[in-house]
Amino acid sequence: MKPWLHIVGIGEDGMDGLTPATRAVCEAAEVIVGGERHHALADGIGAARFSWPSPFDALIETLKEQRGKRVVVLTSGDPLWYSVGARIGRNIDPAEITYHPQVGAFQMAAARMGWSMADLETLTVHGRPVEQMIAYIQPDQRLLILTTGAETPAQIAAFLAARGFGQSRMTVLANMGGEDEARFDGVAESWTHEVPPFNTLAVDCIAAPDAALLPRVPGLADELFEHDGTMTKQEVRAITVAKLMPMRGALLWDIGCGCGSVAVEWMRAARYARAIGIEPRADRRAMAAANALALGAPKLELVEGMVPEALTGLAAPDAIFIGGGLSREVFTAAWDALRPLGRLAANAVTLESEAELIALHREFGGQLVTLQISRVEALGSLSSWKPMRPVTQLSLIKR
Question: Rounded to 5 degrees, what angle do the CA atoms 238, 244, 249 make?
Answer without folding.
Answer: 110
